[in-house]
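Here is the promised in-class demo. Please do not try to memorize the tokens; focus on the logic of going from shape to residues.
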């Protein structure tokens, strides 16, 4: 017999043996274990604004603790917005304090000047919105630019109304109303400051929990678009086990039930709690359910391990089968 014929015969026998195992042995309850694997559900940290990546504090494969900083995007522009908001908040506080002391007639001119300046800012914001809106509708400007123009006009409008209310109160001599208007302006300015500080914090996101860095997509010096993931991070509490249970014992795999599992190089006696059972079988003809087909029918089951230490996404696992209750 020729060597080629011998090789072909061996391959055919191997394929037949593998097919018999998959059909009659793989994943059957009568076996000792069920096959499965470890899966991680990644998070994709990103910056809310576009900018240059100035620092990358982690690398692919790093194990992190909660609170570890991932990266930093250039904060110069956002820092300027925050500083402006802080200055406006301080000015509003000063005006409120002065209003509580009582308005002096000589100071009406100061409020009127402030109102004129605020109206000029509103006019500029309104002009900018009228310019950006048709560009956004035509696709020549981004949605972020349109949102920014709308927000700027809304802020300027609120500022004009607050100063008008303050001026009216001063002219009528209503000290209490004037003080309340000034305090409202303080609240508005402090809210804007809080939003600017939150946006600045978002430029340097931190790990929400312990976990591992799966991959890194950008390096320092590269430009990162807004909301584009900079890296992929898998928290320890988002590590799952996925395995397949045979249909004749699927009733035993209820959500909340505990299963034992093992893997190469892992500790003994590992446990996991079932969190999901697929409502549909896998690898089964959609209509014909002969007994032979039923014996090959399996259902996807997911479970959360009691500890994810030592488990790596993609790692094969062996799950101890559960037995269905007798009828």
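The designed amino acids, position by position:
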């Amino acid at each position: 017999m020729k060597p080629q014929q011998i090789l072909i015969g061996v391959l055919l026998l191997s394929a037949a043996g593998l097919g018999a195992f998959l059909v009659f042995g793989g994943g059957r309850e009568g076996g000792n274990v069920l096959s499965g694997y470890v899966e991680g559900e990644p998070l994709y940290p990103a910056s809310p604004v576009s900018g240059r990546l100035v620092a990358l504090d982690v690398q692919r494969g790093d194990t992190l603790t909660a609170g570890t900083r991932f990266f930093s995007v250039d904060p110069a522009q956002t820092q300027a917005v925050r500083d402006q908001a802080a200055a406006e908040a301080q000015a509003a506080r000063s005006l409120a304090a002065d209003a509580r002391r009582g308005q002096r007639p000589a100071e009406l001119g100061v409020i009127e000047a402030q109102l004129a300046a605020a109206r000029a800012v509103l006019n500029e914001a309104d002009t900018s919105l009228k310019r950006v809106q048709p560009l956004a509708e035509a696709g020549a400007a981004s949605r972020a630019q349109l949102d920014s123009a709308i927000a700027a006009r809304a802020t300027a409008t609120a500022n004009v109304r607050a100063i008008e209310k303050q001026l009216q109160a001063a002219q009528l001599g209503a000290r209490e109303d004037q003080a309340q208007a000034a305090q409202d302006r303080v609240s508005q300015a402090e809210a804007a400051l809080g939003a600017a500080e939150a946006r600045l914090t978002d430029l340097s996101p931190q790990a929400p929990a312990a976990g591992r860095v799966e991959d890194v997509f950008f390096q320092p010096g590269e430009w990162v678009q807004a909301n584009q993931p900079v890296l992929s991070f898998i928290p320890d509490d988002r590590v799952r086990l996925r395995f397949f249970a045979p249909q004749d014992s699927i009733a035993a795999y209820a959500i909340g039930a505990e299963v034992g599992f093992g893997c190469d190089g892992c500790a003994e006696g590992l446990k996991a709690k079932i969190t999901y059972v697929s409502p549909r079988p896998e690898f089964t003809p959609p209509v014909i359910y002969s007994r032979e087909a039923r014996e090959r029918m399996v259902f996807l089951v997911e479970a959360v391990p009691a500890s994810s230490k030592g488990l790596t996404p993609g790692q094969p696992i062996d799950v101890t089968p559960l037995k269905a209750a007798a009828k």
